[in-house]
């Protein structure tokens, strides 16, 4: 893999990203910013973030295969890497059956999409695949630089590494709340987990595979589930939870900082950067 995303990155929805955020994230020492919430296929936001910075990698987490034709995103990919070689990673994924009226076989759709990216000249090393279950993880290992699992735990990371083998990028997302009050932290984190993820079959199936019960997943999620999916505590404690993914076999972990009332996440990212030794 020629794209160095570093050990720690930031996952943030496209609505909360802009050049100023990217400049500070780079200064804080993070290796990558993952653009969430299904960025459109023109990849204009990724280009703007790259234009504003010098080193940090920009990745999509993820371009939804149902929303953006592969040919469209391939053209955008080539435009961007011509300007910023080795600094852009195209993350793609299948989305959810509940969100797509024309949803068909997820696996067949992923294979067809990757085939089209091949035909359009998007290199294997320049793309990653959203993957949770064994079949998708193996596909990510075979057809892309690696996997970008979302809403997972270090236990999932450990199993995923065993499935994909060595030399394959494994870059999970981890939600975090910097707050030492557990009840307050759960109150911030639970809505982000419950809606929509605890109501989507692929995420529920993955959590059940990991040993959680239907009771854990219902009614907003049990406290134990929320604690597993949303790391909380002071910056040092949260840093340890991020590092647990690396110890379980991840190459890179991207933190999604959750805040009460949609507050600016940069103060927490500054604290976390210091705790991780990035500065």
TrEMBL record:
Ranges for domain Luciferase-like come to: 20-118
Recall the GO molecular function terms of this protein's record. Answer: oxidoreductase activity, acting on paired donors, with incorporation or reduction of molecular oxygen
For this protein, the record's InterPro entries field holds: Bact_Lucif_Oxidored, Lucif-like_OxRdatse_MSMEG_4141, Luciferase-like_dom, Luciferase-like_sf
Cellular compartments per GO CC: cytosol
- List the SUPFAM superfamilies hit by this protein, alphabetically: Bacterial luciferase-like
This chain belongs to which protein, by name? Putative F420-dependent oxidoreductase
Q: Which organism is it from?
A: Pseudonocardia cypriaca
């Amino acid at each position: 893999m020629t794209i160095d995303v570093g050990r720690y990155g930031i996952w943030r929805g496209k609505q909360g990203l802009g050049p100023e955020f990217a400049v500070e994230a780079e200064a804080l020492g993070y290796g990558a910013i993952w653009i969430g919430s299904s960025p459109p296929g023109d990849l204009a936001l990724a280009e703007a973030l790259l234009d504003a910075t010098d080193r940090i990698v920009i990745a999509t987490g993820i371009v939804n295969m149902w929303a953006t034709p592969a040919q469209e995103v391939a053209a955008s990919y080539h435009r961007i890497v011509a300007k910023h070689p080795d600094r852009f990673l195209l993350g793609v994924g299948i989305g959810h059956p509940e969100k797509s009226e024309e949803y068909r076989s997820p696996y067949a759709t992923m294979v067809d999409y990757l085939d089209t990216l091949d035909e359009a000249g998007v290199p294997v090393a320049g793309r990653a695949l959203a993957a949770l279950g064994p079949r998708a993880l193996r596909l990510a290992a075979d057809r892309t630089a690696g996997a970008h699992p979302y809403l997972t735990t270090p236990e999932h990371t450990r199993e995923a590494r065993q499935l994909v083998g060595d030399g394959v990028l494994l870059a999970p997302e981890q939600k975090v709340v910097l707050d030492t009050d557990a009840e307050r932290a759960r109150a911030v984190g639970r809505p982000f987990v419950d809606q929509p993820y605890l109501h989507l079959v692929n995420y529920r199936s993955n959590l059940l595979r990991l040993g959680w019960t239907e009771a854990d997943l219902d009614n907003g999620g049990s406290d134990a589930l929320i604690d597993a999916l949303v790391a909380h505590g002071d910056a040092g404690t949260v840093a340890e939870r991020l590092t647990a993914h690396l110890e379980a076999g991840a190459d890179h972990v991207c933190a999604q900082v959750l805040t009460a009332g949609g507050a600016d996440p940069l103060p927490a990212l500054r604290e976390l950067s210091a705790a991780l030794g990035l500065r």
